[in-house]
Amino acid sequence: MQIDRDATLAFDVYGTLIDPHALTPVLTDLVGGQAAALSQLWRQKQLEYSFRRGLMRDFVPFSVVTGQALDFALAATGLRLDDADRVHLLDRYRSLDAYPDAAPALRALAQLGVGRQAFSNGDPADIEALLRAQGLWSDLQGAVSVLPVGTFKPDPATYAHFCASTGARPESCWLVSSNPFDVIGALGAGWRAVWIQRDPALPFDTWGVAPTVTLNTLADLPKLIAG
User: Fold this and answer.
1) What's the whole-model pTM score?
2) Is 85 considered catalytic here?
3) Which is the catalytic residue, given 4, 6, 12, 58?
4) Beta-strand relationship, 115-120 and 213-215
């Protein structure tokens, strides 16, 4: 399937453009051999807390969710950080590394002229700073955060907020995400979706729906744009 040039691509940030585990080397310096496990639990709890807060209508900014998830992961693994190291980690979260395929893909899509927006659970200032730090901002046309609607993806309100913010119609929106929950949320909102299967060992969620397109890398995305 091809994507029309008048479509709007909505790029998830954490896990799609940006590697949420990019701080593992920093964690290794702090906690040694438990760094990878700590990073995995931190990310797992970050997502879980956002889902729970969305369901409970108990919203806090994503930066707060991230800090609370880190605290849980440390407690669950029996690890301790002093206050300075904790603050440093959370500050570094605003400059996580991009995946290697992100910048070339966005650059190629910009040259093709298709619509390109970041779409994230993250706080607006953090998202812009992060994308600027990794050289991705200039090849996007903007960023939409869920913050104004006070809930998190995959709440249907977030996808409606994206359309209201960008003026795009749901039928012209394509989510690009590595997160199955996000893909399912977008499909439920009347969008189409490209799932970036970054881990070939992990299947898509068994919900009876499938991504419109599945790719292993963002590098293949420009090939889908209609000529």
Assistant:
1) 0.96
2) no
3) 12
4) unpaired
